[in-house]
Design a protein that fits this description.
77 residues; alpha+beta; four-stranded antiparallel β-sheet; 4 strands; 31% helix
Length: 77
């Protein structure tokens, strides 16, 4: 079982678990879970927290922004 907890940086930026829970259903998961795509208009701390929640305990990295579609892309490391 995975339990999501905010980092101190996320909390300092005003991210809440409710924010993450609100955004998590909007995440697109592709490539059998190897790619997570998030709304690119989210604040960086919130987007990073949502990505961490989507990947669970699996390591991942920020892969960039699709500016044409306004999507932030994270990939499994």
């Amino acid at each position: 079982m995975y339990t999501h907890a905010l980092t101190s940086t996320e909390a300092a930026c005003g991210v809440t678990l409710d924010d993450v829970a609100r955004e998590l259903p909007r995440v697109m998961i592709r490539e059998s879970g190897a790619t997570v795509i998030i709304d690119g208009t989210l604040a960086p701390a919130l987007a990073a927290s949502v990505a961490r929640a989507a990947f669970g305990h699996h390591p991942h990295t920020y892969a960039g922004m699709n500016r044409d579609l306004g999507l932030a892309i994270y990939r499994a490391a």
